[in-house]
Amino acid sequence: MEMRTREDTEMGTDLTPPLPPLASSLHDSHLLSHCSACFSPLPPSPSPSPSPSPPTLLTLLSNNTNNPNTSYPSFLRYCSPLCSASDSPLHFSTAEHHLFLLPHSHPTTAHSSDLRAALRLLHILRLHTQPPNRVCGLLTNRHHFVSECDETLARIRDGGKAMAIARCMRDGREFSGDSRLEEALLCLVLTNAVEVQVNGGSALGIAVYDWCFSWINHSCSPNACYRFLPCSPETPLFSGESGLQIVPGGDDEIEMENAVRSRSESIEGCNIYGPRIIVRSIKAIKKGEEVWVAYTDLLQPKAIRHAELWVKYRFSCCCSRCNASPPTYVDLVLQEILAESDIDEEIRELTDYVDDAIADYLSVGNPEACCEMLENVLVQGLPDEQLEPIVGKSRANIRLHALHHLSLATYTTLASAYRVRASQLLDPHSEMDGDELEALSLSKTSAAYSLLLAGATHHLFLSDSSLIAATANFWMNAGELPLLNLLSLQSHKCYKCSLADKFEANSFGSEAQNGGLENISKQFLNCILSITPKVWSSLIQAHHLCKIFKDPSDSNWLGKMETSKIWDFLAHSGCTSMDSSSQHEESINECEAQRDTNQERINMYKLGFHCLLYGGFLSSICYGPSSFLTCYIRNLVCGEESLTGNSSHQKD
Questions:
Q1: 429 — phi, psi (to 5°)?
Q2: Separation CA 545–CA 552 (nearest Å)
Q3: Among 4, 448, 515, 648, which has the highest number of CB atoms less than 10 A from its own CB?
Q4: Residue 76 pLDDT grade (very low, low, confident, very high; cuts 50, 70, 90)
Q5: Which of 555, 342, 376, 573 is CA-nearest to residue 462?
Q6: Where in 404-484 does DSSP place strands (E)?
Q7: DSSP letters along 106-156, please?
Q8: Local structure of 404: helix, strand or coil
């Protein structure tokens, strides 16, 4: 099945109204911090009480409890009585509550969001026998999932059994051993659910939507994206199709008719307070052309994208980017390395090393060790002790191109890690001795990596406009830190480009639809190219590695750079390893002895100002002029007057 446009559609146009989910569920880690009905954040509890200890399945069955609503507390939280009244009955009637009572299924020890969403769908759809391959038009894909013995199949078998046992507990009956119905609905969730990210944050949970969204197919070069809206009890429910700018397509006319007929029934049974989804065009789309969104990270090479799509959805992508011959420039450069021999094993080891370093940082939270490990990889490649010996074969230590997908992931993590280190130094509750100069140095390094990531991604965006969402986020991140650190400056207005005027007039959307993307991008780059050289040396003076990048805003060097030149530069500069602590001690003594000059601060502010505005422009195309990200940028750029009490402007 597929979805196509009704009419010619401009870039930056909503293709759907806000669509309610058929079922949604928070990830276990957010159950106590967000409302389970509308996904809104809950106010922090001043003295949180410990979670109740649930009885085991054996205890529950021996007590023959048929009314868990009164015997055991709910593990969910709500933001209002309306949300509680809407959702808490489902929590018990769907057997979600009983799922938590199973051994090892408490929210603190298990990942149950997909199981809970599947239980809700079972309840809403009132299914009692194993369904066909589609339910309300949505593909279950069970026959593909069960055809391979892997972790996904194990999850389906174990999850289906847990769901079936929970439903038996709810009904006070013995488990017969048959969980095929539950497995089919879990497969439907795995195939159709999307991660819910609200206001640009991390994934809060998952949601399953009807065919209006779920029939939109994947492409690695999509022409649309989507955003989420938290739905409060006061939000009116959309129930018609007048706002849909897309229509079903495909050869199965009977399936399309059945799905359209069942849509109104499914909406009546769904949780009307769940997160709603809106699909929006990121390219101009002709009438009758198919609409695509991305199911995976587009800043990964073809092999990784295909592996992830197969594991999660059991299909192989045949989009224009994947079928390009020769491969697209973006796919070539995302896997470019320096080596002269067969290096498949070396690539695997290097990938594992980088992934482990990032995972350790995210889980353990040691930013200093993370910085040292990742920067050593950028400079030296994989450490010798990490190279596993192979009999009869010499090992080649490979190094990454500046645009390799692992390099991009490394820049992202280093920008975060240096920012965390700076925050730790200034935290009055931290055990670390605060040092403002060192914290400033670490903040500048974080800003340098953010700017490097934005410039590198923008270079790829110029070759493939499908990368617009990632490019928008990275430019916003690059501008946020300088602007937040310099809010005491007077607000700035650039007279060389129209970014500020168009942003203040809220005309970014119309500008994009009138073909102004190229013009605004040129204006932005012209300004950035004049500003960045004035601040780049200050950002990188504490960091030898970043000095190899003359100007991250000038993408010409990225397209022409040979990987070997990076490492030749490092060898001649004496930078063969990265010791973060000693580097920063030297930089503080040699470079940070004096405070930034006022002109440097102004230039830094101009840099952040332009990066944020351009990121906001791209974001308005992807998510709309009223999205959270666009409003957040407006508060930073325009709201500083209320923060500082100063309404005058600096002129370029």
A1: -95, 0
A2: 13
A3: 448
A4: confident
A5: 555
A6: none
A7: STTT---HHHHHHHHHHHHHT--S---SEETTEE--HHHHTTS-SHHHHHH
A8: coil
Mean pLDDT of 495-521: 71
Q: Is 75 exposed, middle or buried (0-12, 13-18, 19+ CB in 10 A)?
A: buried
Q: What phi and psi, each to the nearest 5 degrees, are found at residue 103?
A: -55, 135
Q: What is the mean pLDDT of residues 106-111?
A: 48
Contact 119, 163 (CB under 8 A): yes
- How would residue 528 be classed by pLDDT, with cut points 50, 70 and 90? confident
pLDDT band of 550, cuts 50, 70, 90? low
Rounded distance between C-alpha atoms, residue 557 and residue 538, angstroms: 20
pLDDT digits over 314-363, tens only?
Answer: 889 999 999 999 999 999 999 887 554 556 777 888 888 888 889 888 88
Q: Around 640, how many Cα atoms within 13 Å sit in the side-chain half-sphere?
A: 19
Of the listed ranges 219-228, 311-320, 610-619, 642-651, the least confidently predicted one is 642-651
| Among candidate residues 39, 18, 9, the one with its CA nearest the CA of residue 212 | 18
C-alpha distances out from residue 580 to 366, 441, 572, Å: 13, 11, 20
Q: Which residue has the tokens 């995972």?
A: 359
d(CA 299, CA 309): 14
How would you classify the pairing of strands 337-338 and 292-293? unpaired
Q: Quick check: 133 and 42 in contact, CB under 8 A?
A: no
Residue 276 pairs in a beta bridge with 229
Q: Give me 516's structure tokens.
A: 């102004």
Structural contact between residues 181 and 340, judged by C-beta atoms closer than 8 angstroms: no
Higher pLDDT, 392 or 15: 15
Residues 522, 252: Cα–Cα separation, whole Å: 46
Q: How confident is the model at residue 649 (pLDDT cuts 50, 70, 90)?
A: very low
Could you give the CA distance from residue 191 to residue 138 in angstroms, rounded to a whole number?
9
Maximum mean pLDDT: which of 343-347, 436-440, 448-452, 581-585: 448-452
For residue 647, what are its two tokens? 């309404």
Task: State the alpha helices, DSSP H only, in 174-218.
Answer: 180-192, 211-214
Model pTM?
A: 0.82
Between CA 546 and CA 444 the distance in angstroms is 11
Q: Which two tokens stand for residue 555?
A: 């993408």
CB 89 within 8 A of CB 74: no
Token pair 């997909």 in the structure block, residue: 114
User: Would strands 292-293 and 217-218 be described as parallel, antiparallel, or unpaired?
Assistant: parallel
The amino acid occupying position 163 is M
Q: Do residues 230 and 39 touch, judged by C-beta distance below 8 A?
A: yes
| CB-based contact 317:220 (threshold 8 Å) | yes
For residue 1, what are the contacts with CB-CB under 8 A and spacing of at least 6? 137, 139, 211, 215, 248, 249, 250, 252, 255, 256
Q: What are phi and psi of 130, to 5 degrees?
A: -60, 125
| Beta strand spans in 511-554 (E) | none
Is residue 17 scored above 50 in pLDDT?
Answer: yes
CB 452 within 8 A of CB 552: yes
pLDDT recorded at residue 47: 47
Give the integer Cα–Cα distance in Å for 505 and 484. Answer: 23
> Do the Cβ atoms of 245 and 287 come closer than 8 Å?
no
Three-class DSSP category at 184: helix
Task: Measure the CA–CA gap between 501 and 520, rounded to whole angstroms.
Answer: 12
